[in-house]
Amino acid sequence: MSAVVRAKPKFYEASLFMQSFVKALLLVVLSLLMSCRSESDEDTRTVFNYNEMNGVSSLDPAAASNFENIAPVNQLFNGLVQMDDSLNVIPCIATGYSISPDGLRYTFSLRQDIYFHDNPCFENAKGRKVTAGDFVFSFNRLYDSKVSSAGSLLENIDRGERSNYKGFDALNDSTLIICLKTPFSAFVNILTMKYFSVIPLEAIEYYKQDFRRNPVGTGPFVFKSWQEGTKLILLKNQNYFERDTGNVALPYLDAVTVSFIKDRETAFMELLNAKFDMLSGADAFNTNEVLDKEGNLREFYKKKFYLQKETFLKTDYIGIVVDENLPMVQNSPLRLRALRQAINYGFDRDKLVKYLRNNIGKAAHAGFIPPGLKSYDSILVKGYHYQPNKTAELLRDAGYPNGKGLPEITLHTTENYKEQVEFIQSQLAENNIKTQISVEKTTVLRQAVAGCEYLMFKKSWVADYADEENFMSLFYSKNFCPQGVNFFHYRNAEFDSLFEKALIENDSYHKRKLYQRMDQLVVEDAPVITLFYDEVVRLVGHQIKGLRTNPMNLLNLKTVRKSKN
Known about the structure:
globular
């Protein structure tokens, strides 16, 4: 029998058409709903966005030598200890530590609930528990000059016979021993530096030299991606160990993104448009446009963001080489202390800070140690104020009455500070001290100062760690450059004796008094002309809460919350 093919009725074809139409419509609606839900989900995520105009060169804590690198490294890694906003050393991965009576042996007890971030370098890509052995590996890695510039911080680690040739030793998984050659009261402060973060051996073996862009740590955020020169993305560490006072897990944010826009006007527009949540540093925006001469936000911008200002452990100064064993000093009037003091009295620091820095910072009327450290005291350590009469008196004492016979002095600086030194030049000229300004490239100035090639130069000193030793070490005679940081070749027997006593002094009161006396000696001998103590400056969007500041200018995002506009 042959098959009979029947024609399908018209209503059947119409029914198929309607079914197809409805399915298509449902797919469109479903797609829109999923898109809306996706957008809604995206909206609920809190992402902190900031700009780093100078870029980031490495995410390896061993290379955390500048603010640009330190900021993201601080989100990714932890160390034994950390510093609170008042510069007190508090526990982190270590629950506590003890020091032997001779001050040479430090014993740290570690938490046993800290895990490295999940990463392909581990078995099954699951982060493992941190042990004391990981700190031994991490710290020993810093000795390699190809890996880190932190080697000088390890000079006091005892790796000799007395410590069984182990400067760092894991007694067991939860106990770390560190041995020193000589007592050093600032040692625990040094351990708060990001250099001393813990990293896993597996990550170094897996990524090798590419660890710099594939970081594996224990911090509040986990590395996601980094398109160098464009954007860095970090995600919330869902297993982070720290909690707030209400026992809520940190961090609150879901992610952090870092952009690298070099043009500050473009970056500022992104802040105005709420694309960025923060700009940090006086160089990151036009201070004349945004701030008034009192250093406050202009009314127009108060609705857009708020201003954070905080004491910063940074002293700006003019340095003078004073070593009379050097021919260039022997032939210069700057060898005379009276002339160096005359220069210190010969210009107005308050006007410099107010009119050239919009009151960002504080005029340096005390010593070299800045506010924020316990030894700072503008009453006990008496510095210099603008006093033309004192300048004239000291010029006479130096043998140059009214500047007669005084040769022109060359001051080396960089383009960034040209306006400031021109102001100083103008005021000194009014007081019969003539100077010539030589503008150098930053790298040229740095190398020349380290090589003791320039007699007078403009520089600044930023604390590596929060201890007065970090500032006074610039004047210790055993630290002469180029091996050390005594760029002035300053030598004072009393200062050296006090400095050595302070290194082993653990009593905070006596230590403070020692450093105040040292600071006063520096003021009187005047190998430096302190200009101002800087401040941390940030512009922050109103949607950001809980962004704390500290005198180390360390960006800490684990307690930040972001509300939706």
